[in-house]
Every structure is written in structure tokens, then in C-alpha cells.
Amino acid sequence: MKFKIVFFLFNIIGIYLCVSYWNVPNFWFLIIAYFLVFGAIVSLGSYFIGLNLFIHSEKKGEGVVFTFDDGPHPEFTPQILEILRKYNVKATFFVIGKEAKKHPELLKLIDEEGHVVGNHSYSHSNFIPFFRTKKLQRDFEKARGIIDGIIGKKANYIRPPFGATSPRYTKMLRRVNFVSIGWSFRSYDTKEKDVASLVSKTMAAIEKDNKAILLFHDTMEVTVKALPKILEKLKSNGTEIASLSASIKILPYE
Prior knowledge:
52% of the residues lie in helices and 11% in strands.
């Protein structure tokens, strides 16, 4: 909906420029600037899921919410599950279909311990934002089928890989009953090497917003080391930690 409004407004501006300035010396400069600005807005909207330019993605709830992407990972996912068990925290794991297929026992363990399984596509391809609508839909539905085949539940929650969206996601969500989940804090734990820095940045984000949906990855050693420290701090200061489904009031499974 936001994209339609932006597209409509830029069409009006484009028509105005063509009608009013077509005969001035810098006309082509104005047209080039017009397309550059429009392209920049579309690019930002594609990359930053929180802008909700193409699709609506949930990014706020009630209480701090922990989510983990890109697993299940044979080494780090079990360690994260053990930490969450110790602190009695329920999280959401957005799994890649091809990884879930390799490690069905881990997917079952995630589910058995009361965590939610979300859909992070089957392929997690670098080119997934450019997939045709049908191909995009097949990719997410293939992951959903694998999840259903392992835990017997059809996942409603999806998280677009890289947080990158496009009008093709808009078309897909019209066809399939998926709920897109974004975040309000991206930890960048795939790049962060320092545990203390990751803890500090996370706590600063939570202090700023105690209803944050936090994005981590259960594929990183730094996350395994930082998570107990983060949870200990939250426990000591009495911060509420909520499950995603309770927080956004939307059922995680069909």
C-alpha cells in the first residue's frame, strides 16, 4: 500500500516536471534527478524491511522478543536451545528449509521445547529478492512443506532473507496466508566478533525500546557466548521477555 502511494506521488511529480519544465535548459537534469530519487527510495524500501514499503512486517510487540535466523545449525542451535531452557525463554527460529531437511532432529527439538518454528525460505538464495512471484512462492511453500513434514505444523510466520522485499512479496502474500515478521533490532551478529560489543549493543537497544523484536542467528559462536550474558542482564533488571506469538497476537501455525 505504501509503495502504491509513493508510486502515485512520483507519477504526479513526473507529469508536473514534464508539463512545466520541458522547455527549460536543465530539463534533462531534473528528469535524471527524478529517477535517481525514485530509485533511491525503492532501493531503501527493498533493503529495510522495517519501512514496510512493499509489505507489512510485524516489528513490535509486548515485551522483548528473541528470534533466530538461518538454522538449524548442528553445533550452535543445540547450545542456544540449552541456554534458552536454562532461562526459561521461548524464542522463534526462522529456519532455512534446506537446513531443516538436513537436520530434522533439531527442528523437532526446537518444537518440542516450546519454541516457534518460522519459515526463512527453502533456498535463502542471494537472488531471492529478484525471483519471479511464482518462484518466490514455491520457495517459501517448499520450506513450509518440509517444516510440516517434520513437526506436523504449517508455519504461518515468514521472514524474508536479508530483510529484502519487493513488489513480488506483495503479490505472494496476496496468494498465501503468510505473516511477515521483521525486527526492531538487528544485531549484525554475523559480522560482530566481539562478545562484549554484541551484549552492549543489544542492551542499549532494549533500554531504548523494551518492546523490541530482536534478530540474531543460531549459526554464530559469538551469539552463543553473548546470549547468556544478555539474558542474565534482562533477568536482573526485570525486563519482560515474551514469545513472538503472544507478543503480536497472531497464531504461528495454520
